[in-house]
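Recap from last week: sequence in, structure out.
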Amino acid sequence: MAQVKRIRRAVNGILLLDKPRGLSSNAALQKVRWLLNAEKAGHTGSLDPLATGVLPLCFGEATKFSQYLLDADKGYETLMQLGVTTTTGDAEGEVVERREVTVGRDAIEAQLPRFRGEIKQIPPMYSALKKDGQPLYKLARAGEVVEREARSVTIARLDLLACEGNQARLSVACSKGTYIRTLVEDLGQLLGCGAHVAELRRVQAGPFGIAQTIALEALEQAHAEGGNEALDAFLLPVDSGLEHWPLLSFSEHSAYYWLHGQPVRAPEAPKFGMVRVQDHLGRFIGIGEVSEDGRIAPRRLIRAE
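Predicted structure tokens:
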């Protein structure tokens, strides 16, 4: 018998998943997409399988704006295991070396200022960055080590939350592209005992915090009780990740021309930057950028239903 193709739904919005440990970001996305039976989906920056926490999942029209969440600052809490280095920089890797730990809270606190502000990081070999078209982690698994160029990242906040035995818990607020594994490894090296990430939890992704997330188990329960549509209640508006941007309201006339790709004027527009736009009925219709002549040029559009 021929397999019946599943007809997917047009689902639009953002779902904030508390990603469970042991699941890749893409596997988590595909699981939630299946639960929603959604046509189009994407996530906004990967979390390692070891990591848990805030993973914004974009569906339908929201995927048009996922890049802005990908570029947003992030917040993490991590448990640093002192005295042990691993191949991957986290608990998933094989142990490379064990060293005695003779440092404590005071020594850790003394080193933290060196990592605050703009710093340089060399991306780990076990990362999704590519060299000649090959992900670095594939080269690393084959035993290869290639030269990686140091990158500038910004650590806006780095605090020691707790220190007990050979473990220390850190809170980190950082720019996109920051590797917490590299931060922990570099700190461990300065302390003279080495270190790796034992636990990692993302608590902030752009404007979204951990308190807004929902667990995969809760989504599965809702699906079991009410089907695909039951999960729609957990969706945030398409533009919820951009709510810190100025919001402009267009007249029916202006919205018509703007949705057809033409820049228009808006009296209340800021002098520069990106803006959200809604039509005369209050429906979000896309994002625009203020041009030098003061008009709002469309950048990504949504057709109002």
